[in-house]
Amino acid sequence: MRRLLRIYVVVGVLFSVNIVSAQNAALSFESEGPEFNNATEEYRALWNSDGSRIVRVLERLTGLTIQFPTSDATYLVPSFPSLTTVAGEAGNGIGDTTPISVASGNRWFTEDGINAKVFTGSHTWASIIDMNPTTFPDPDVPEFDYEGWVDELTAAGHNYMRLWTWGASMIDNYFGDGNDQHLGPLPWNRVAGFGNAADGGLKFDLTSLNDDYFDRLRDRVLYARSKGMYVSVMLFEGWETYQSGTQWRAAGNVFVSGNNVNSASADTNADGSPYEQFECSVTCSGTITTLQHLYIDRVLDTVADITNVHIEVCNECRDSTNMRTWSEHIVDYVQAYELANSRYQHLVIRGIGGIGTDDGSWISGSSTDVVATGITFTGYTTLGTFPLSNSTRPSIMDTDHFWGAGGTAIDMWEAFTRGHHPIYMDDPDGRCVACGGGFPNTATRASLGHIQTFTASLDLADMAPSTAISSTQYALFSSGKEYLVLQPSNGSFTVNLSAGSGDTYTVTWLRTDTGVVQSGGTVAGGSAAQSFANPFSGSPSGIVLKLDDGSGWR
Question: CA distances (Å), 244 to each of 53, 172, 173, in order?
Answer without folding.
Answer: 36, 6, 8
